[in-house]
Design brief:
This protein is of the alpha+beta class. The chain has 13 helices and twelve strands. The strands form three sheets. The chain has a five-stranded antiparallel beta sheet. Strands 9-10-11-12 form a four-stranded antiparallel beta sheet. Strands 1-3-2 form a three-stranded parallel beta sheet, with helices on one face. Strand 2, helix 2 and strand 3 form a beta-alpha-beta unit.
Length: about 325
């Protein structure tokens, strides 16, 4: 691990000022925030991340989960994953988020990992993690050996000829279905970004993963009030029962009225370069009856633009079955 300086931020403005001196907030940033450290420290040990300075933000008052006056929920950036997943308001009003978080990592990791850290979780692509190989995400212009290489776990949606890495988070899939909004304080003031606009497709710049700029500190996320009568469900398919990343996952929120679907949100995980919202599936299902045939047709629509690699073509059918079953389970709860 490269040597680094560690400072402790005593306030949000102090943290913002410290990180604003960084040349970037993206891959390879020389100044990084650190909270739970469950992801960043791993990559520092692998020399994938070599910051010269860490800004400890654990003392900032950003760890609460509290209701909003509009019926929504505010989740602090430093709220631990285990706290969020087991919070009564989350379990009762946003069960899809609780299910997603509890399906990820281990109990020990969830006790340390934070909401904002999970938002910024790095890909597990083996080439990104191994500095012996080139990787356009880690070092632009060095190629993508995953294309034509070991790509069984990697993305089939939103890829480019520069990068096919997946977003590994379960939490982010549920937050996408819930239409979370990310609240950021930066050197130019406060702003909000819908989660569907927070992540960037790899395109020709896979090293730029989010809209964050130097000095930007995520302070909290907000969730809109649940749609009365709606139900949510998160399904994760993986190689083993625990502590494994998704081959495919689906977060769905659905409401039926008089036998027809009048509210539907669909997000997929394990198959996209970003947490993957599927307007195609939502458009198909809106106004339809909640039948197995319609669910399967919606899944076909969601995966229509999938581009498999040499080892992950099985993900197309897997993702279709995952989404179909998640929709079926959501209806069963209604």
């Amino acid at each position: 691990m490269h040597p680094f300086d560690l400072i402790t931020a005593g306030s949000v403005p102090e943290a913002v000022k410290a990180q604003a001196s960084s040349s970037t907030a993206q891959q390879g940033a020389p100044v990084r925030f650190i909270a739970g450290g469950t992801n960043l420290v791993d990559y520092m040990k692998l020399n994938v991340e070599t910051p010269r300075q860490l800004v400890d933000i654990n003392n900032l008052p950003l760890d609460t989960v509290e209701p909003l006056t509009d019926g929504g929920l505010r989740i602090g950036a430093l709220a631990r994953n285990s706290v969020v997943a087991n919070h009564d308001a989350v379990k009762q009003r946003y069960p899809v988020l609780s299910q997603a978080i509890l399906s990820g990592a281990s109990t020990q990791l969830r006790n340390m990992a934070t909401t904002a850290g999970n938002l910024l979780q790095k890909t597990r692509c083996v080439y990104y993690r191994d500095t012996a190989f080139g990787c356009n995400k880690r070092e632009p212009g060095t190629g993508c050996p995953a294309i034509g290489g070991h790509n069984r776990m990697l993305a089939i949606l939103g890829t480019s000829d520069q990068c096919i890495a997946t977003n590994p988070s379960d939490q982010n899939v549920a937050l996408t279905a819930l239409e979370a909004v990310i609240h950021i304080t930066g050197s130019k003031g406060d702003r909000t970004v819908p989660i569907t606009q927070f992540y960037l497709l790899p395109g020709t710049t896979p090293n730029r993963e989010t809209v964050l700029e130097p000095g930007d500190l995520i302070t909290y996320i907000s969730l809109p009030a649940p749609i009365p009568g709606s139900k949510g469900y998160y399904l994760k398919l993986r190689d083993r029962a625990s502590y494994e990343f998704a081959l495919s996952s689906a977060a769905v929120i659905l409401k039926t009225t008089n036998g027809h679907i009048d509210f539907i949100r669909v997000a997929l995980g394990g198959v996209g370069t970003v947490p993957w919202r599927s307007p195609e599936a939502e458009h198909f299902l809106r106004g339809k009856s909640p039948t197995s045939a319609n669910f399967r047709a919606a899944a076909d629509a969601a995966l229509r633009d999938a581009k498999p690699q040499s080892q992950n073509g099985f993900k197309i059918e897997l993702a279709k079955r995952c989404l179909t079953h998640a929709l079926t389970q959501a209806v069963a709860q209604a």
